Amino acid sequence: MDNTTNKPIQTPAYDVVMIGAGPSALAAAVYTTRENLQTVLYEKAVIGGLAAITDKIDNYPGFADGVAGLNLAEQLQRQAERFGAQIELGEVSSLRKDGNDTIVTVDGQDVRARAVLIATGSAYNKLGIPGEDALYGRGVHYCATCDGAFYKGKRLVVIGGGNSGLQEAMFLTRFAEHIDLLVRSTIKASEILQTDLQPFIERGQISVHLHTESTEIIAEDGKVTGVNVTIDGKEKTISAKAVVLTTGGFGANMQMVTEYNPALNGFVTTNQKGSTGDGVVLAKELGAATVDMKDIQIHPTVEQSTSTLISESVRGEGAILVNQEGKRFYNEMETRDKVSQQIIGLKEKYAYLIFDSALIERAKAVKFYEKRGLVKKADTIEALAKEINVPADALKATLETWNKAVADKNDSEFGRKTAMDHDLSKGPYYAIQIAPGIHHTMGGLKINTKAQVLKEDGSAIQGLYAAGEVTGGVHGENRIGGNAVADIIIFGRQAGAQSAAYAKEN
User: Residue 362's closest CA among 407, 314, 429?
Assistant: First the structure.
């Protein structure tokens, strides 16, 4: 028996906690650590911030020839760490005062700080369109002043009809051969800017296109040559040496879902409306092969009336699943497919997530579910049982058994071994009715290690690349959430790099 489990847990303490690890935080850490202040930086994304994901930085003092963003970030990190800064990956969810100190909650754990520096930076107002993130810094930019000079003599596209869009387009005429200004609806910039724009249009430096929609990828001699778009109801071809498909899966296209997996007919979907498989359809018209199309993952905890996915963090922080009899029926922390099948096998085809008020402080997403009206609440277990129409004595017995299992670190009923750090004993008590829903399509376009889209014979379609959920073959029959790193980050970067190299060579 390990007697260490009964020892009190000491909250880590630092002189300075910095939230963020971009250039400003790293620079600040150099100064705090040189003053012998124990310093830790928590970064939820990329160490180095926006600098790290910028292909080349040309305006940072001290680098006459410019510097790769990732290299700059690495140098800043090494300098801060040389003086003793501690840099950790983690997401800060809350701050609260405790006397003169501040308690910082990082990934559910408390850290004590004498001082806190918030250096979370900013984010660009993105379009949210396929390929935007994968090609950032490699043809996709958000600052014409910063990056326009890289594209002397090129034909460029600027997306947006607001003030910024027009200003950026006019500035870029200093470098670019021609600017195509793409606007979703109509130009909404100020009248002054619209007046300023007119001479550029008259000189043929800027062409304005309203209401654009991609309809087809086109190819000649087996090579992708561009994209057909609909502009104000008329078809037009935009030429391109390479095309990258990052259009997502087909989890919101129920006709397509049931074509490949008829057993999923009638299931709700957690996917956004744009997950309709357009990229798969377009590529198949060019002879692209697909793989694993029947493998469609269902998520076990979806609120059915709103198709809201209830995060696994709720179970991960200690929630349990009960049936209409008020009893647990399976190990809640098994894989998604297994838990889903157990719920589907219940007479009622649904289950309840049960948790207490202490869990809400650990799983912040629950507050969002409350705002949407998805959560039942009661002061006692008996009252909660009445709210969800399950036997009160059974639900009470279930929670008592579970709480003892947590105390003993032994789930003798179903063998759960994880997420057993907290019991469910602090009222009020809560319940969310859930059932499985369509979550992720593991199947899609067949690609190689260079992210090239392949034909049935295994040969590559020249100039056509794909990454993300539009592809198949990465996850096998059942996706694990962390595998998205390969799907999105690895193959996204590969698709961007390979398509850029192809375009330069051809």
Answer: 314
Is residue 473 within 8 Å of 445, Cβ to Cβ?
no
Closest by alpha carbon to 129, among 228, 212, 239?
212
Strands (E), 269-396: 290-291, 296-303, 308-309, 320-322, 351-356, 376-378
Of the listed ranges 43-47, 126-130, 422-426, the least confidently predicted one is: 126-130
Among candidates 132, 224, 176, 156, which has minimal Cα distance to 502? 224
Q: pLDDT (tens digit, 9 = 90+) per residue, 190-241?
A: 777 788 889 999 898 988 877 776 556 666 776 656 667 777 677 877 776 6
Q: pTM score > 0.90 for this model?
A: no
Catalytic residue among 336, 362, 416, 479: 336
Instruction: Tell me the two tokens of residue 456.
Output: 């049935």
The helix or strand, by DSSP H or E, that contains position 259, with its residue range, turns out to be helix 254-260
Same fold, 124-210 and 243-292+442-506: yes
Domain covering 124-210 assigned CATH 3.90.79.10 in the classification: no
Fold of 243-292+442-506: FAD/NAD(P)-binding domain (3.50.50)
**Per-residue pLDDT, 488:** 78
Binning the chain into helix, strand and coil, the percentages to the nearest 5 are: 30, 30, 40
Given the candidates 2.60.40.420, 3.50.50.60, 3.30.70.1060, 3.30.1330.10, the CATH classification of the domain at 10-118 is 3.50.50.60
Residue 179, burial from CB neighbour count under 10 angstroms (0-12, 13-18, 19+) = buried
295: Cβ contacts below 8 Å, ≥ 6 apart: 441, 442, 443, 472, 475, 476, 477, 478
For residues 488 and 244, what is the distance between their CA atoms, to the nearest angstrom? 13
- Biggest alpha carbon distance in the chain? 83
- Sequence spans of domains, the chain: 10-118, 124-210, 243-292+442-506, 298-438
Active site residue 336: yes
d(CA 434, CA 79): 49
Residue 106, helix vs strand vs coil: strand
Q: Do the beta carbons of residue 29 and residue 39 sit within 8 Å?
A: yes
Q: Please, are residues 440 and 337 in contact by the beta-carbon 8 Å criterion?
A: no
Looking at domain 298-438, its CATH class is: alpha beta
